[in-house]
Design brief:
With 587 residues, this protein is α+β, with helices and mostly antiparallel strands. The protein has four domains: 98 residues, OB fold (Dihydrolipoamide Acetyltransferase, E2P) (Beta Barrel); 170 residues, BirA Bifunctional Protein, domain 2 (2-Layer Sandwich); 134 residues, Gyrase A, domain 2 (2-Layer Sandwich), CATH 3.30.1360.30; 68 residues, no CATH class. The chain has 18 helices and 22 strands. It has an eight-stranded mixed beta sheet, sandwiched between helices. The chain has a five-stranded mixed barrel with strand order 1-2-3-5-4. A five-stranded antiparallel beta sheet has the order 12-13-16-14-15. Helix 10 packs across helix 13 and helix 15 packs antiparallel against helix 16. The longest helix has 23 residues. Bound molecules: aspartic acid. Its EC number is 6.1.1.23. Belongs to the class-II aminoacyl-tRNA synthetase family. Type 1 subfamily.
Length: 587
């Protein structure tokens, strides 16, 4: 059994007889002396074997990388000139006396410091080796510390950790469910929880007052770079607290977390209404590190001949907006072409631009393929509104409102990053005053958050003007990432029915799907609300990691499979028969 971790040894241990357990990180033969760097989760220590201890020397000579060993030896100062200031244990070494090989290892599929040369698929297939890398160990250790700090904060504030079921009826968070066939109920399926939403509300009806859970959630979506089919939420629900109190308490939690873990003061989080965020930043999760803003110019374009602009300018569902990039006139044609392709991802059909070369010359000082279509007068009015200076570039978006906001919103961040325009390292905020509903492409309405979110108006007003009604929802945003979101909930049955009505959910369907909730609301449901934070994304931000897979021990790939276990996999005919499932042959 070890007496110390490798990485913990320091000068103060010199003279002590110690025992280490760990892996051979590297073996070096220095002309008659063998050096083993022994690694465990705390770090590396150099162990030296002299030929005068024949048996252990021979063993040390025989070990290979990643063998598991036990070493007994004496901690001593490194000889002068061999101290390594880059290593925490670089002042000492261990004179190896006894060596036991606890297990051998095949040559690993990649050396730990060669992970970059192998593809991510190799790393994921041999994740247990990849996870031996100090960077991965650090990230998962950090994650453990964060969850611990969160548990402590919530526990100190009277929250109870209560588990909710994994085998459920579907919860409507808007994504596709993962389904599990029931053996005992032929033809019926469980759904894995997209979130513990309804259960946490029922825990409030049950009087627990403050609940939290570090909960696994499952959503069968087409994966983007920062999504996983199963992910972890810090799920929170409270009774008798309004949005101010809930936001205050959770803002404090995140502030304390950054302060204690990273020594970063996030300060007070500003609030911004959803409509303002969309208008100024083209996003409901604006990245406020970058100062640039979208400016509406539809009023200046409505009367021009040029249909590309005039059309959306006159369309009540259209938007024409401009984004001024200070110093952007230096952008090359090639880069502008790249940006044009980039906004195409969001549905923009092109990217018009004006470079401001010599403003004092009027329209002649503007370089642009579109000025001739706008006319001098309009072009100069736009320049005036945007308060441009020589050396700036202005990009334009003209299309449906959604396309313009999303395309210019994303371009704003891309250009900001490319041109290093961030004005601070951390920019948190709350986005509030979300609409209750949004129109779907098919002309129906859907809940912007989820259908249990309380509106900030009466049921009558909601029914009369569903598309302008606001909700009592809030999102916490950090550096353009949605860290968490939640709402005050409906605790009144009549209001809940109204919302289902607006959503076109019939009484029968509501009864069938959420009858238990509607019932519970009749039996003394307290006013309640909560939110959920995405733990994986929080850890990503806190550790400055690019990919969500780097902060999850065993992540799934972009195609929602596990490279190591090869899940999902086929099952036997017998298992299918037991479940009464017959597979349809794909043609
Ligand atoms: N259940 C919500 C979600 O997963 C969070 C909440 O409203 O508390 O996004």
């Amino acid at each position: 059994m070890r007496s110390h971790y490798c990485g913990d040894l320091r000068k103060e241990h010199v003279g002590e007889e110690i025992t280490l357990n760990g892996w051979v990180h590297r073996r070096r033969d220095h002309g008659g002396v063998i050096f083993l760097d022994v690694r465990d989760r705390e770090g590396l220590t150099q162990v030296v074997f002299d030929p005068d201890r024949e048996e252990s020397f021979a063993l040390a000579d025989s070990v290979r990388n990643e063998f598991v060993i036990e070493v007994r030896g004496l901690v001593r100062d490194r000889p002068e000139g061999t101290v390594n200031p880059d290593m925490p244990t670089g002042e000492i070494e261990v004179l190896g006396k006894e060596l036991v090989i606890l297990n051998k290892a095949e040559t690993p599929p990649f050396q730990l410091d060669e992970h970059q040369q192998v593809g991510e698929d190799v790393r994921l297939r041999h994740r247990y080796i990849d996870l031996r890398r100090p960077e991965m160990q650090d990230k998962l250790r950090f994650r453990s510390k964060v969850t611990n700090a969160i548990r402590n904060y919530l526990d100190d504030n009277g929250f109870l950790d209560i588990e909710t079921p994994i085998l459920n009826r579907a919860t409507p968070e808007g994504a596709r469910d993962y389904l599990v066939p029931s053996r005992t109920h032929e033809g019926s399926f469980f759904a894995l929880p997209q979130s513990p939403q309804l259960f946490k509300q029922l825990l409030m009806v049950a009087g627990f007052d403050r609940y939290y859970q570090i909960a696994k959630c499952f959503r069968d979506e087409d994966l983007r770079a920062d999504r996983q089919p199963e992910f972890t939420q810090i799920d929170i629900e409270t009774s008798f607290m309004d949005e101010e109190a809930i936001m205050g308490m959770t803002e404090n939690m995140i502030r304390e977390l950054f302060q204690n873990m990273l020594d970063i003061d996030l300060g007070d989080f500003p609030r911004m209404p959803y409509a303002e965020a969309m208008q100024r930043y083209g996003s409901d999760k604006p990245d406020l590190r970058f100062p640039m803003e979208l400016v509406d110019v539809a009023d200046l374009m409505a009367e021009i001949e040029f249909k590309v602009f005039a059309g959306p300018a006159k369309d009540p569902k259209g938007r024409v907006a401009a984004l001024k990039v200070p110093g952007g006139a230096q952008l090359t044609r090639k880069i502008i072409d790249e940006y044009t392709k980039f906004v195409g991802i969001y549905g923009a059909k092109g990217l018009a631009w004006i470079k401001v070369n010599e403003l004092e010359k009027g329209a002649e000082g503007l370089q642009s393929p579109i000025v001739k279509f706008l006319g001098e007068d309009v072009a100069m009015k736009i320049m005036e509104r945007l308060e441009v200076q020589n050396g700036d570039i202005v990009f334009f978006g003209a299309d449906k409102e959604k396309v313009v906001s999303e395309a210019l919103g994303a371009l704003r961040i891309k250009v900001g990053e490319d041109m290093n325009m961030a004005q601070c390292e951390w920019a948190p905020l709350w986005v509030v005053d979300f609409p209750m509903f949004e129109e779907t492409d098919k002309g129906g309405v859907t809940a912007l958050h989820h259908p249990f979110t309380a509106p900030s108006c009466s049921p009558e007003e909601l029914k009369a003007n569903p598309l302008t009604a606001l909700s009592r929802a809030y999102d916490m945003v950090l550096n353009g990432c949605e860290l968490g979101g939640g709402s005050v909930r409906i605790h009144d049955q009549a209001m809940q029915k109204t919302v289902f009505d607006v959503l076109g959910i019939s009484d029968e369907e509501a009864e069938e799907k959420f009858g238990f909730l509607l019932n519970a609301l009749q039996f003394g449901a307290p006013p309640h609300g909560g939110l959920a934070f995405g733990l994986d994304r929080l850890i990503m931000l806190m550790t400055g990691t690019e990919s969500i897979r780097e902060v999850i021990a065993f992540p799934k790939t972009q195609s929602a499979s596990c490279m190591m276990t090869e899940a999902p996999g086929e099952v036997s005919a017998a298992q299918l028969r037991e479940l009464n499932i017959k597979l349809r042959k794909t043609p």
